[in-house]
TrEMBL record:
This is Cupin 2 conserved barrel domain-containing protein. Residues 1-20 form the signal peptide. The keyword Signal applies. Coiled coil: none annotated. InterPro entries: RmlC-like_jellyroll, RmlC_Cupin_sf.
Amino acid sequence: MIARRSGALASVALLLVAAASPDDLQRRLNPEEARALPVVAAGAGTSGLHAIATRVLKGDPARPGLYTISITVPPNTKIAAHTHRDDRTATVVAGLWHFGYGPVAKEDATRSLAPGSFYTEPAGDPHFAWTGSEGATVYITGIGPSDTRYLGTPH
C-alpha cells in the first residue's frame, strides 16, 4: 500500500513538472528583482495582515504544487499564533525575525533569527512571530495548497 502511494505521488509530481512552463522551472532573481515583484493581496498561506508585503517568487500558495513567497514585515509587527495545513521551511533574508512555536504568542518564547537563519513551520504546528524596530524579510517555501488558521483571536 505504501509503495502504491509513493508511486502515485511520484506520478503526480512528474505531471506537475511536465505541465510547468520553462519560466516556472527556471527562475533567477537577484535581491533587487525579488523586491521589484508585485505585492499580492494577503492570500493563502499569508498572515492576512495588509501591512505585510507578500510577493510570489514561484508557484501559487493557493494551488497544488511547490511555491515560494517573500514576506516583508514592517517594524513592530506582531503575528498571532496560527497554523498552516502544509509543511513549510523558511529563511530570513533581511532584518531580525523573532519566531516561536506554541498556541499562544509569547515574546519570551521566541528565538531571534538574523539573516541567513533557517526555521520550519510543520503542518498543523502553531507558531507566531514579531519584528522589532528594523522589520524583516523572510522567504517561505511549501507545497500548496496552503492556508492560515489563527488560534483564538486573529492578529
